[in-house]
Amino acid sequence: MPELRKDPIIGRWVIISTERGRRPSEFLPDEIRTRGGFCPLCEGNEDKTPPEVFAVRENGCPPNSTGWTLRVVPNKFPALRVEGDLNREGEGLYDKMNGVGAHEVVIETPKHDETLSTLPTDKVIMVLKAYRERISDLTRDPRIRYILVFKNHGAAAGASLEHSHSQIIALPIVPKRVSEEIDGAKAYYEYKERCVFCDIIRQEMGHKARIITENGGAIALAPFASRFPFETWILPKDHSAYFHHTQPAQFRDVASLLSDALRRIESTLPRAPYNFMLHTAPPNETDEPFYHWHIEIIPILTKVAGFEWGTGFYINPTPPEEAAKYLRKARFQENRG
Amino acid sequence: MPELRKDPIIGRWVIISTERGRRPSEFLPDEIRTRGGFCPLCEGNEDKTPPEVFAVRENGCPPNSTGWTLRVVPNKFPALRVEGDLNREGEGLYDKMNGVGAHEVVIETPKHDETLSTLPTDKVIMVLKAYRERISDLTRDPRIRYILVFKNHGAAAGASLEHSHSQIIALPIVPKRVSEEIDGAKAYYEYKERCVFCDIIRQEMGHKARIITENGGAIALAPFASRFPFETWILPKDHSAYFHHTQPAQFRDVASLLSDALRRIESTLPRAPYNFMLHTAPPNETDEPFYHWHIEIIPILTKVAGFEWGTGFYINPTPPEEAAKYLRKARFQENRG
């Protein structure tokens, strides 16, 4: 059972794999299992993953067989386990608990050489709907306090498989980074009685310099205090705290803007690795006027080094206004969806 | 002038280089200027760095000439500038200020192929003394609120020059990561009336499983909630909030343990990149009973990915108890100092 341990000074939790630790010799330079090798996420290899928990299949073909357009499966090497109780306990001055939670993989396409940015909009909508399904389902587990959806694209962004996929982790606590964002948004709302994200959208739409692209329902912008070069946020224009409460009609605009933003990033920074994270309010609470779900995309172009680790500060060599300019004028193939 | 910008939601500051932003084409795969190439930090190339602000020289040879064992010079490409006023101002709902501060490079040795772990203890003491000198000097600037000393070793740890060096950044604000640690330590002290770091040292010395090595004045341990595999903390055994108030006699034990810990890491994980950060209390305050300066060393073996960015949580595949076991039994050449 993995173990959750809390830093006694700053209260940050860490997941420690206690079953069989990675030895020094196992930290070899990264290799991504590439085209030449075997890929457990490709169509035809359904028996190489744990049984699916959700899938989009045509013509009623049976689960865990071919004929799918999207599958969600438990991670074969999960960071957290679904079985068991939380069992909080102490160890002298330290705190720990069982690593209870869920860790799933969203296989976005059956084809090895497609990526989220080459998929037609209809299929990107399907991916967002799969996120919503899984969040709604995992939310029903009373041990779960937060669900994070994220994507690692490229080896330098932490992807260990090349085949296009995203991940879902359900956690037994609300993580620090999330509660900081919630607390900050709440403090702003208490002072202004307005959602800080709605205010950001309004100011950016007036100012224009940091807008990358927009459509009727969503906006993509380079945030004012971007930590990373070409950092891109995608926000629905209408206020909504929970991603999984979003109406299907809104999905089209967000999906098409996500696809558009990823194409702009790929065309401006060819083959750049990136991460994206879905930021949504912790579930099981009443609708929140202060929080606004969104997606943060960070291309991995610089290294996190001693300065960042020591301060929590970031040094960004490309002002967001310039990043937005490059991304606005990016040339790329039109969306097929 | 670089610009400091504050994220309006979570209050995190970012340094934005506004003078001439890095373009997309400038984010090419890393190359470290290696042995074959020209090194501006080597002895004989003193005119290729800005004039030194501190040096250890034998026989009174003139500044910025050969004959030194250690030099501190301003960074040629500083993240912050020494000139100018702070000028806090708003931009709609956003906050920003001038990037005032200092950014210096500590050249730890005149020889290109020596590293902090191969230097004799006497020279490591010299490096720590140089940190103390520079912190004491920068503390006198009333615009400065925090001074961070850190080291990036290896390309994957963010080093852009191979020659052994560390860096000092003086900031006009106390960064988030530092105030979180201060606040956490203060909360513990208010509850227990004991320093949390002193309590950690006591518990670890009783328990033994996470101790890597120790001597009369200092201890090296794998922290209970290690974020990274083989993360190593070095703490002076005697309570002291400020690194720059440490007495010269204490330096020998800390320096010798730092050197010992780096040798153990290098022997266990050959050529592993690493960062280390000196954690010390913000200067210009009265002596603090709740804070305890220390050094955190993090080998760079895993990738920070979407999960970490989204949660602030870390997944560590090597339990600290196992890491400590490997580092305890590491075989390496004895310290020459």
Descriptive terms for the model:
homodimer, 337 residues, alpha+beta, HIT family, subunit A, 2 domains, ten-stranded antiparallel β-sheet, 6 helices, 15 strands, 25% helix, globular
How would you portray this structure in words?
Two copies of one chain form a homodimer. With 337 residues, the first copy, chain A, is an alpha+beta fold. Chain A contains six helices and 15 strands. The relative contact order of chain A is 0.13. In chain A, a hairpin with a 6-residue loop joins strand 1 and strand 2. Chain A has two domains: 3-22 and 31-171, HIT family, subunit A, CATH 3.30.428.10; 178-328, HIT-like (HIT family, subunit A). The model of chain A has no long low-confidence stretch (mean pLDDT 91). At the A-B interface, strand 1, strand 2, strand 8, strand 9 and helix 2 of A face strand 1, strand 2, strand 8, strand 9 and helix 2 of B.
